[in-house]
Amino acid sequence: MARLNWKRALLAASSLASAQSSTPPADSLSGTAATSTTVEYQTATVSGTVTSYSVAFTVPAQADVGPNLLPNIKDPNAKQAQAICPGYKASDIQKTDTGFTGTLHLAGEACNAYGTDIDTLKLEINYQSAHRLHVSIEPAYLDSKNISHYILPSELVNKPSNGIVSSNAQDIDLQLSYSNEPSFSFKVVRKSTGDVIFDTTGSQLVYENQYIEFVSQLPENYNLYGMGERMHGFRLDNNFTTTFFAADAGDPIDGNIYGNHPIYYDTRYYEVDTETGERKLVTSQNVSADVEYESYTHGVYQRNAHAMEALLLPTNITWRSLGGSIDLYFFDGPTVEEVLKQYQHGAIGYPAMHQYWTLGFHQCRWGYKNWSQVEEVVDTYRAFNIPLETIWNDIDYMFQYRDFTNDQNTFPYDAGEKFLEKLHANGQHYIPIVDSAIYIPNPDNASDAYSIYTEGNNKDVFLKNPDGSQYIGSVWPGYTVFPDWTSENAQEWWTDSMKSHHDKIAWDGIWIDMSEVSSFCVGSCGTGNLSQNPVHPPFGLPGEEGSKVLTYPEGFNLTNATEAAAAASADASQSAANALADPPSTTTMPYFISEVTPGVRNVNQPPYVINNVNGDMAVHAVSPNATHWDGVEEYDRHNLFGYEILNATYHAIASVIPNKRPFIIGRSTFAGAGAVAGHWGGDNTSLFAYMYLSIAQALNFSLFGIPMFGVDTCGFNGNSDEELCNRWMQLSAFFPFYRNHNVLSANSQEAYVWDSVAKASKKAMNIRYSLLPYMYTLFYEAHTTGTTVMRALQWEFPNDPTLANIDNQFLLGPSILVTPVLGQGLTEAKGVFPGVGKGTKWYDWYTQAAVEAKQGENVTIPAPLGHIPVFIRGGSVLPQQEPRYTTTESRNSPWSLIAALDAHGSATGQIYIDDGEYIKQEHTLIVDLTASNGTLYATARGTYQDKNCLANVTVLGVPSKPTRVAFNGQEITNGVNYNGTSQVLSVKGLDSSSPAWAADWVLSWN
């Protein structure tokens, strides 16, 4: 069986039970009878039928506790594979059309450090395109001698083809060489600079059935980015371990959390001798304003879904995996933007094109108790005139937390249908949550039927134990089973389940949660215990006794002293009571150490212990030996569950709502997930620190090819406050995905709760909604070319090493610079204006005047509460429409343009327009906008007919008052204004009689 903790759970439960069952279930592990309890029942009316259900039994906390493990990176006595393993020798090297192949033989006696050494490996080197080099090392044969070894199939995660190589592959700026002395190693060199970008020289390749290790040298103070998902600064530290294991954990700093993206971007800066052209590698910590620099960026993607670690050490990166293969892809760049394009184009796919309405503001919380409360939230936003595009429901709407059901006492279908008719009529949308585990009914309760489980069970779509029985964990509804997305009927069952729910509640998108995949107990804890279902999780829900939400943001005691003191006192009392109820152990538990048994693969306790945030890999997750239909264990596929459910959901929605682009926000992701879904940052905390880190989170997901990213604005866990929510609502207005969401029982934090937050939100939303055409165009470019939507300053100004670590500012596309206030009590922001030393101009969004700044200067910018500094990059033409209440209203309003001239009086821009909804577009329109020499040209191409007129054009950086302003050669005498102080030319009321892009036009000033 999969690891069982049910015995321990029942022992703890026996002291709580009121009576003993007369017919205990069989212990499926040992064949003996297991102790069970009599279950009390209550009744509820569901869809007009009286249904009985059990009084929730609380799963003991011990059920989610694993053995005491010491991660290898924290164990000073751990075996060092580099010191004891022999490495490999290469032989039988054969040239191919795309590179070469070879065989690697173990170069000495097997070390069996953390598994069974593989004697013979297959080596393949392929130059696959003008920008991609592939290195593959995997077992040469898979038989009983090499033990089971799972190689990630292309059917689950795209594998770039080694087939017919691109004709321009010889143009790649990468070259690989290998050596056999003293053992096999290889180098990858950038040909144009001679820089060695990957080098395993001086290290040993270790390849075992449960452990792979390889090392690459890195320069001093290197600049690495990516390697997610975790809460961390944007630039990765040079002494830091990244763990790749999907974990249900509430955003701990530096720990592994929901998703896995094993790619890094390595940016290297060179000092350039302007006379000789020679380059010298420098660090970003030691630069001078008087020196010319160049940068080169390359990417390295390790296509492996097993649990992994990457040790970022001062002189190297050491990769360690618990299985799989070495499947490396090198992308030559030479810029971050180019690496990302190459990564998406060749390896993971371009991000999805989302519907236009998804760019509006979304409101959610865990704790909306019924349709009336949800409708009240929608109506209150309208009353305060704060734009609201989409209302979301967390698990409150479900009957007993069961997927694809509505509680008919609080969220009945008929009332929901009426609410959604009204919502949709107002151009607004609705999204419910769907969890990743399926409730399994209580066999002793005939009325506890659940068709979603029954139909899935009949189609055999759930994970199993090694003996073939169903794997039964525990999540929100109680004991649950888990879909096996590789089973042949899983997609059909999932689509049917979504359709049955959509037929009753016409939702517009889906929110996928708990998809790491999470389970609240170790092992198949529901086996033999289903008569207790539904059960309560092994922890208190927020708001329950002992779990009241009593924390506040930094500095709350300074602004709300009395309330903060009361909360602190209550929190101390709660902590003391919890300590009395569950006193900490006074005994020191010895660490569990799993020894290597040659010829045996131990998936439950692998000999190498990763630094998993939850400890043992089965804690708060489905156990490693849960088994898929094809016999593959969860050990080999754990990190893929989140990606697979997103993919299944995409295809389900495409069937349920035909032709329209599915909108999905998911929690757990893997490389390639952006092609089907967006992502939110998970269970963050209402602290300024998390608001700050949200920028680095978003920039990372840009690197991972998931531009539709946002966080729980104002914070999820804990209580927010007025100042934090004020600042955060403004910051998130410039993130691609914009949603406010918080935890059950915490204080309400909708944008209208505080007057200052309402005003600040409307101010920032006015900017966002006016720029929706710009944002939508950015998504189109990302979808078609792989560019980014939200950008680091470093990416747009790649030759400035002072920007390498900037994560308190960001760019929205190439043209909008956001410099937020990220700390409590601050009334000023600090930021740099990149490129000013090279002539780049920046304009203040609000005054429209040019900014005065020096190269590298950290400028202090006034930013009282309710103001977020925003700037426009010179050289940009920005499209705008009037910011109205919904995205539909906004995109049906008149057009305006802002032409922010650069130092040469020029600017360019583009608009992409389509119907905003459908996957396949019969008609599209692209508008090119160019300003130069006192003239703005607009040229459209395409057949989509946009009916909105052109209202206004604003030109920034006009040095003197024009003597004549003309539109298509006709002088304009009304609506023209010039501000000599700000140097802004404003032309209003241009053409209200015809569509703006129906014909090309010219606006001139001289």
UniProtKB/TrEMBL annotation:
Q: Which residues form the Glycosyl hydrolase family 31 C-terminal domain?
A: 786-878
Task: Write down the Pfam families for this protein, in alphabetical order.
Answer: Glyco_hydro_31_2nd (PF01055), Glyco_hydro_31_3rd (PF21365)
Going by the UniProt record, its keywords in alphabetical order are: Glycoprotein, Glycosidase, Hydrolase, Signal
So what does this thing catalyse?
Hydrolysis of terminal, non-reducing (1->4)-linked alpha-D-glucose residues with release of alpha-D-glucose
At the top level, the lineage of the source is Eukaryota
CDD domains from the UniProt entry: GH31_MGAM_SI_GAA, GH31_N
According to the UniProt record, what class of enzyme is this? hydrolase
E.C. number(s) listed in UniProt: 3.2.1.20
**Signal peptide limits:** 1-21
Concerning InterPro entries, the annotation shows:
Gal_mutarotase_sf_dom, GH, Glyco_hydro_31_AS, Glyco_hydro_31_C, Glyco_hydro_31_CS, Glyco_hydro_31_TIM, Glyco_hydro_b
Q: Tell me, which GO biological process terms does this entry list?
A: carbohydrate metabolic process
**Domain Glycoside hydrolase family 31 TIM barrel, chain residue ranges per copy:** 351-778
Q: Which GO terms describe its molecular function?
A: alpha-1,4-glucosidase activity; carbohydrate binding
Q: Which family does it belong to?
A: Belongs to the glycosyl hydrolase 31 family.
Q: What is this protein's record name? A: alpha-glucosidase
Which organism's genome codes for this protein?
Answer: Acrodontium crateriforme
